[in-house]
Amino acid sequence: MSKRDELITKYAADLKDKCGVNADMDLLTKVTIGCGPAIYNADASTVSGSDESELNTVKNNFLIKKLGLSESDDLDGGINAVMETYGRSNRNKYRAVVYYLLTKHFGKESMY
Fold first, then answer.
1. What is the domain count for the chain?
2. FRET partner for 84 with CA separation of 20 to 30 A, picked from 38, 78, 99, 100?
């Protein structure tokens, strides 16, 4: 099993245990691949739900650039909803899981 496959399995378990979501493994795999080498870096592989600049990066680089959403789509509301689902007290929020939940939240599965 490759390192990426191990991470995808870990992300699927995180979705099930912490978010109560049964992952669409095909979509989760595509989102994880889309994260690129960031998933292998301890700092870059997670998202800080309380760091405003981190959340702005997620909004600008993922929601606007990758998913093609506009500012009018209530992006902050979507990010907040995902952070609530993942659990604000949960310290390690994996980037791939956050991106997966955002993709589902905004119904942008077709982008993958």
1. 1
2. 38
**Residue 25 belongs to what domain range?**
3-111
- For residue 99, the model assigns a pLDDT of 97
- In degrees, to the nearest 5, what angle opens at C-alpha 45 toward C-alphas 39 and 49? 150
Per the structure block, which two tokens stand in for 85? 């689902």
Band of pLDDT at residue 55, cut at 50, 70 and 90: very high
Whether 18 and 24 have beta carbons less than 8 Å apart is answered as: no
Alpha-helical runs (H) found in the chain:
3-14, 25-34, 52-57, 75-86, 95-105
Tokens of residue 104, six digits: 């589902």
| DSSP helix/strand/coil, 16 | helix
Determine which of 27-31, 47-51, 65-69, 70-74 has the lowest per-residue pLDDT on average: 70-74
User: What is the phi/psi pair of residue 101, to 5°?
Assistant: -65, -40
